[in-house]
Structure formats: structure tokens, C-alpha cells
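Aim 2, interim progress. The first record below pairs a target sequence with its C-alpha cells.
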Amino acid sequence: MPTSPSTARAWTKAPWFKPTVIAVGAVVVLGIIVLLAKWLRSTEAVSSFIATYPGYASQPAGTPVGLPVWLNWSHFLNMFFIVLIVRSGLQVRYTTRPQGYWKRNNKGLVKTKGQPKKISLDLWFHLTLDALWVLNGLIYWILLFSTGQWKRVVPTSWDVFPHAVSVAIQYASLNWPLENGWTNYNALQLLFYFITSFIAAPLAILTGLRMSGAWPAKAPRLNRAYPIELARRVHFPVAIYFIAFVIVHVTLVLTTGVLRNLNHMFASNDGESWLGFGFFAAAVVVVVAAWFLARPLFLRPIASLMGSVTRN
């Protein structure tokens, strides 16, 4: 029995219809990509290309082996801040009736001539997390370049690009490259770690700063050169990039030797013990607890240490 036009219209207006179409479409596209990658790998040209460029770019002399403890801590703090920044950012974007407001105390180290602006408690939390994330990033950059760890995440040879293409084909064909992140990230990982650390993160900082109250309002030339509309158009896609990066990153960590990967990231060793998994589980508990505690009831006492908190 054919579906009537009214029934079809009702389906298209149903809240489940659009997500279902997107999900089905994504599965179909992924299936096509996998089949195409498998076919490419069956050809002599691509097979020879992968043999020539297996996936690991050249490293500069003196590249350190292993991941130090400070990098484990930086990784955990980055994970902690990113999750809460995304949460608070979505609240700022979609909350129409904030449950509280914050106004900075105009005294102490930060003192201005004009009166501070009142902002929502959600925005205060988001900006505070941003500042802590930036501080963690600055410490990470300093340690990265002072210890030589930058050689592991900054491309230094043009062969990184053919190796990255090779890795992409291998991932897409579901016949993944061998992982050896303790000594050398594969080329695709290297490129995305570089993009995340040195392109996406600075973009997030610069666009967030432009939209914040810290940006000078009485600077017409600067504001014309860098309009706030441009910052808004860039900031949200960058946030989406971070979300996508985290999803893919976590998926690969859990599917390419989870115990060894977690030891790299949380226990600073190359073994396959459960130590890294234990630290990771504890980190997840801390992040989940912070997610649920990030509510006005718990935020108000902390925010009141830096300013006045009101309900309207």
C-alpha cells in the first residue's frame, strides 16, 4: 500500500527523521570509502606506493624516544579542559535563560577605568576554562621545544605527505598500519597533532579572545581589520574540529592496542600492563564528576571568589 503524501510529510517533520537520514547517509558514505580503498589497494600502482611509503615520515636527528611524564599530565589536563570547554561553550551558545550572572571585582591585579560588564555564569565558566587551557598549552609549548619533543609532532620532511596519503588509504581499507607511537607517530597522526597544536588551538584562542570582553572596544582600526563576525564564523567550526578530533583520537586509541596506547598516554611506559588503563579510568571518573558538578550550585561559590554573583 503506497504511503500518502500527508504521512510522508509527517515523517519528514518527525524529530527522528533528520538524524536517521544523516546516520544512514554516513554509513553509506563510509561503506563506499572502504570499498574504494580496498579496490585501490588491490591495484599494482597503489600497492607499490604503500610499499614505498608505508606510513612513517623521516625524523630529524636526535628525536627523543618515548613520552615523558610531563606530557602525560599535559594530556590529562588537555582532556579535562577540552571536555568542559565544549560543554560550557554549548551552554553559552544555546542557553536562553542563564541561571546566574557574574561581575568582576574591579580591584587587585586586574583593574580598569570602566566598570566591568556583567556576564552569565556559563560564560564566566567558559572563559575561566579557556584561560586555564591556554596556560596548560603555553606550558606544553615551552616544554615541547625545550626538551626536543617537538621533533615528534612537527613535520620536518616533505615525505610526510605521501606517507600520510598511504596511511589514509590503509585506515580506509580497514587494514590499518602497524602502530609504534612510542618512537614515531605515523605521518597522518603527525600532521593532525601538528594542526591541532599549532593551527586549531591558536585559532580557538584568537577567535575566543576577539569575542571576549577583554578585546579593546575602542580600537576602530583593529576592529575593522578583525571584525567580530569573522571570529564567530571561525570559532564554532574550530570547536567542531576539536570534537571530531577527540572522537577519532579516542576511537583509534581503543582499537589499535588499547593497553599499550594508554600506557603511552597516561603511564609514560611502552608496556602492556593495566597501569595506564587504571590511570585512564581514574581520569575519566574525574572528568565525568566535573561534568556533573559544573552547575550553578557548585560554580557560584568559586565564581564569588573572583567577583560578585547574582541571579539576574
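The second target in this work package is listed in the same format:
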Amino acid sequence: MAEPPGTGSKSVGELLGELSLLYERTEEASEAYNGTAEKLKAQRAAASRAQTKLSGARAALATGRTQAGELARQQYRGEATGIPPTVQMLLARDPYQLLERGHLLQRAAGDQAATVRKLTDGKQRHASAAKRARAAVARQERLAKRKKKQRNEVHKRLKKVEMLLSSLNGEQLARLHELERDRTDAAQQQLVDSGALDPSGATRSPSAAGRKALDWALKQVGKPYVWGAEGPGAFDCSGLTSQAWRHAGREIPRTSQEQWRQLPRVPLDALRPGDLVIYREGATHVGMYAGGGRVVQAPRPGSAVRLTPLAADPPLGAVRPDGSRA
């Protein structure tokens, strides 16, 4: 079948290749931004905790200084009687008892002074920690700003290609979908032939948590892909998988890169429903295994959550969020 002419000088096949590359770059930039945004959120929380500790240290120091000052005044006044200590000694029935009280008061004042010194040191440490935390937030804000700009620049390029695609006629669009389907089928067959995927489509039993995560993810089918979205009305790829496992009672990292880095890995030929399939060399995309060689995923901008063949994108590997091997 001859390739229909594409828009301008590009064929439909060339447009599909350019589109696939831009989808990959867009998702890479989007996940990079999501990662910096998550770190910024964590650093802001850490800065808030550091500031709270500093406020507590300041309050404790103020209390300690007040108590030290009161003990010093009692010493000077002779335990707040208003009578000089030498006169008290002459009037006292038991001068030794008076000396003992004075000794105890002096020791208490010394102990309180030592406490004030410790509180002062603590306040200084907390002040330094709060300053470092604020500086870390400022650095992360600058990084997040750069990542957001990079993401938006890629998005602009993607929009241009999508505009070209929107000008295709019915025959060209049909050919585009046929090419995309053929490429996916070929990749899926290659994966089966390699032995990395069970050709029978047999499905292992999921864990209880894996079943809950998958059931929840499947209920999101049809909802649109939106960058940075975590539901309930839209999702990006890792927004879908992280929320699905959250609803199953397990917190996992927000981004596909961190899911790949932190979660226990399993081979593709040992997949069971609920496991996460990580895609591309940079771990920039993720879907959830649904069994039978398919994944449920939020594929890309302009699409919706749906079931696809596992090899719709080049798989890097798989992880198991609940970590169990059974």
C-alpha cells in the first residue's frame, strides 16, 4: 500500500516518527519537572519543620533566661525577703540552715545558667538549620523553574506537530493509525519471541493490594492525559500509577524515574497484575500490568487512560510496589 502524501513535505510515516520522538521528549521533560516539584514540596516541608524547631528553641531560651534572672534576683535579695544576707545570718535561729538554703540557691542558679548556655547553643544550631533549609528551597525553586520552562518548550514543538496531524485527511489518519498499530504489534511479537513475555497470555494471580490497585486504575479508563495530573478527572502516566497504589494502601514515589529507582524490580516474564512496567532508557514512562500482555496507562498528551499492548512503548523493566514475590 502506497504511503499517502503527508502535510507539506512530510509523509505520514515521518510525522508518526516525529510525533513519537516528541511524545518521548515531552514526557521526559514532564517527569523531570514533576520530580523537581516533588522535591520542592518536600524541602518546603523540611524548611517549615526547621522553622518550627527554631521557634521552639527561641521560646525555650526566653523561658530559661527568665528563670535564670529570677534565681539571680533571689540570690541578691536573700531568697526574696528583701533583707540583706548578712542581716539574715544575725537574725536566723539556724544560720547553718540559712547557709544551706543559700548554697542550694546558688547551685540552682549555676545549673540554670548552664541550661541557658545549652539553650543558646541549641537556638544557634536551629537557626543555622533553618537558614540552610531556606537556601535549599530557593535552589529547588530555581531548578523547578528551569525544568518547567524546558517542559513548556518541548510542549510548543509537540503542538506544532499535532497541528500538522489535525490537517490530515481521513485516509492519511487511517494510515497513521495503521502504522502505529503495526509497529506496536511487531514490538509485542518481538518481546514474546525473546521469551521476556509469556506468549500464552497467562496471568499470574495478583496480590490483594495489586488487585485493588489494578481495579482502581481500570476505573480511570477514558479519563484524559494531562501533564502533572493525579486525578480525579485526569492523569499523567505516573500520576495514574501512584494514585492507584495509594488507593490500595501503599505510598509509592510520584514519578516514573523514582518508581524505577526505589521499588523492587521483577523480570517481565514474572509479571503479575498490579506490577508497574517502566519504559524507555530514561525511565520516563510507566504503565500498570493488567495481565494477558497488556497494561493500563495514561499514554501521552492528547490521549486518554486506556488498555494497550505492553510493548506499545519500549519497556525498560518492571517493578513491584508491594515488594512481595508470591
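Helices lie at 12-77, 85-91, 95-166, 170-193, 208-218, 237-247, 256-262. This observation will shape the mutagenesis plan for the next reporting period.
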